[in-house]
């Protein structure tokens, strides 16, 4: 028997049972009534039973879903903060690299200028020495000529 047939059987049981006068109440066989109820329970579709089970545990399902959602949101926030930190680190590293490069260029320029000044000074000293030697040679030649 399917569920609808059992409901009809239950209705028949109520309608065919003895009535208690002036009360609107009926008397029926308790065992027969409980047997129909038992058969009805067996005929309840599995989906209805699962729905009932889900309904009874909806609070724990919602709590679990909320917990999972919170966990996902926290993970996403942490990931976003990490990306921002990495971007900040990259920006800081680029700024620091630019600073180092600028300082290296300044030091390089100072070293080149120092080397040029040193070479110029050596050439100037050599020129002075050569001039003195040339003058001395001219003086010596003048003395030889007499």
UniProtKB/TrEMBL annotation:
Taxonomic superkingdom: Bacteria
This protein's name: ATPase
Organism: Peptoniphilus equinus
């Amino acid at each position: 028997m399917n569920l609808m047939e059992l409901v009809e059987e239950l209705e028949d049981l109520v309608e065919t049972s003895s009535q208690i006068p002036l009360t609107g109440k009926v008397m029926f066989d308790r065992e027969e009534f409980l047997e129909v109820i038992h058969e009805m329970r067996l005929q309840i579709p599995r989906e209805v039973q699962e729905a009932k089970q889900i309904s009874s545990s909806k609070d724990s399902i919602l709590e679990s879903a909320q917990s999972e959602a919170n966990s996902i949101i926290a993970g996403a926030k942490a990931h976003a903060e990490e990306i921002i930190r990495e971007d900040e680190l990259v920006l800081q590293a680029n700024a620091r690299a630019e600073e180092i490069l600028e300082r290296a260029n300044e030091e390089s320029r100072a070293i080149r200028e120092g080397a040029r000044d040193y070479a110029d000074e050596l050439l100037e000293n050599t020129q002075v020495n050569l001039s003195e030697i040339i003058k001395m040679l001219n003086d010596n030649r003048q003395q030889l000529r007499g």
